[in-house]
Amino acid sequence: MFVLPDLPYPHDALAPFVSGETLRTHHGKHHKTYVEKTNELAAQAGLAGRPLEDVVREAYKRGDKGLFNNAAQAWNHAFFWQCMRPPGGAAPSGDLIRAIDESFDGIEALKEAFVEEGFGHFASGWVWIVMGSEGLKVISTHDADDTLVREGLFPLLVCDLWEHAYYLDYKNDRKAFLERWFDNVANWDFAAAQLAASDGQGDAFRYPPPEKDAPSSGPEDRPRA
Ligand code: FE2
Fold first, then answer.
1. What is the DSSP string of 38-61?
2. I want to staple 9 with a disulfide (CB 3.0 to 4.6 A). Which of 13, 92, 133, 206 is the partner?
3. How far is the CA of 73 from the centre of ligand 1 (A)?
């Protein structure tokens, strides 16, 4: 039985770049629904009790679109929450900035590629920074599609391109959302940990994320609706 993971920060911690209102709806309604639907459909498919990563891959293999869409969205959102942190956090450094410099000639060029890919992506989906066989690259995937079902791509960071991620705060200005997201709330410490894990150092993200001691969106911070 999958449980909706708490956010790793309070709902208002990313404001004004991502508002508390957006996070309450996005996490407490959208993500919650994906998790609940995954439980229901995984049980029907005989996959109850399996890790979420296995459920996503198995649903994809079977062509079970309903289960794949919900399970992948449950995983993608849990990963996405880790990809953000309150404004004022660390910039990329160490091996991560070296990898960025090698593949993109600097953080500004990476930002340009990330914003261009996400802004140019038609309709709903996700924009990712991934480690591939030839270094870092930026890709986008449609709807619920993700890196779990793509060979040789290791995700470092993702941003949600569905309108529910930004419409309350930015209306239809996805480009401004992506620029401000990249500059202010992208979690480079998490990306660095994923990069290290891609090279066999430490654990990669798996669902559910480990619980943190820091104040987070626990029950007392949940919407009462
Ligand atoms: Fe979303």
1. HHHHHHHTT-TTS-HHHHHHHHHH
2. 13
3. 8
